[in-house]
C-alpha cells in the first residue's frame, strides 16, 4: 500500500507557530494577509487530518477482512467435530492375514471421516486423535488356534488385540491408541496373524472400531 509523505507536516507546524508568534508580538503588522495565511494553514491541516483518519479506517477494514478470511480457512477446520464408531453387522469367519476388517455398521460418523466400505478412517485435519478397538470371539472347539489383529496407521502398527485359545467362553479384547495424525493419514484394523479356525463376533456390539479428534493443531 502506498504510504503518504508526511515530511512536510513539521514545516507547516513551524510556519503556523511563526505566524502565530508574529500576530501575538506584532498584532498591528500582521494585518489581513497574515490572518488569511493562517486560515489557509488551518484548512490544509484539517484536510491532512481527515485524509489520515480515512486511511486509518481503510486499514482497519482491510485487517478485519483478512482476519475473517483467515478464520474461514483455518478456524472452521480446527473447530470441526470428528468422531466415529462402527460395528460389524455380521461375524467374520477365518479372515486371512493382511485382510482389512471392515466395520460396516456405522453408529456415529461426525465429519464423515470413516469409510464403511473400505474400513478406513482418513484424518480430515492435522491433530491428536484417540482410537479404540474392541473385538469379541465366540467359543472355539478347536484345541489350538491363534488370531491377532493390528491397529494400523499408514502401514505402521499402533496397537494390537490377541484372541487366542478361547475354547469355552467368549473372549473380548480392547486396545486404545492416542496418536498425532497429519491430514489424509489413514487408520484401519487388519489381520496380522492366524493359526487354526477363528471368528470375529458380529452384530449386537460384539466388535467395534471408533475414534475421535482430541484437538486440531
Automatic annotation (TrEMBL):
The chain crosses the membrane at residues 7-25. The keyword Transmembrane helix applies. Residues 42-69 form a coiled coil. Keywords: Coiled coil, Membrane, Secreted, Signal, Transmembrane, Transmembrane helix. It is found in: Secreted. GO terms for cellular component: extracellular region. Residues 77-217 form the C1q domain. Pfam families: C1q. Gene3D superfamilies: 2.60.120.40. This is C1q domain-containing protein. The lineage of its organism: Eukaryota, Metazoa, Spiralia, Lophotrochozoa, Mollusca.
